[in-house]
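Record type: monomer structure entry
Structure origin: computed from sequence
Chain ID: A
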Amino acid sequence: SDVGSQKDRVVTEEEWLRKWEMGNTGFHKERGHPLLQKYLDLLLNGRSGLRIFFPLCGKAVEMKWLADMGHSVVGVEVSEQALKEFFAEHSLPYCEEPVPEIPGAKKLQSTSGNISLYCCSIYDLSSSIVGKFDGFWDRGALVAVNPCDRQRYVSLMITLMEKNSSYLLVTVSYDPNKHKGPPFYVPESEIKSLYG
């Protein structure tokens, strides 16, 4: 599959942090994503009280929406600013604690306990730290991961899945020769080979 000139493109952690600092976050949606609303039943599959994972969560409003429905939400994001903005914009009190297994990492947890957001590289997480999940909402993560890291990313997601996990994935379709990304173009054939 032709992914144009994107396969070697790398966006550094510093560049992502700068995007948040500069407010260059066109990828953030102020309102819940219509596709999550449309496919929510597929994600929940008649179940309640799920553990739902938001990889590269930013300050996604859907985290509060799902927590308000009685689910437990866990997210990971490299930008502490994004996480603090999430709690501030929803007027949610939270506490902060270090994550002993990950040097320099923090966990910001709502005082109600149903939203836990990890501030660190996603690659520092493991199921021994965050547990496993019944549902995944991957709206801007796979398409933001550097193409050279996709296999590593998906392998991690698979280790975080419970047996009956539901994984909702949103990608974007365009000519990768005309846009350098992110969001990166991930052809359907590659999604099938990555997730199996």
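Annotation 1: Residues 114 and 163 are 22 Å apart (CA to CA).
Annotation 2: The chain has one domain: 13-195.
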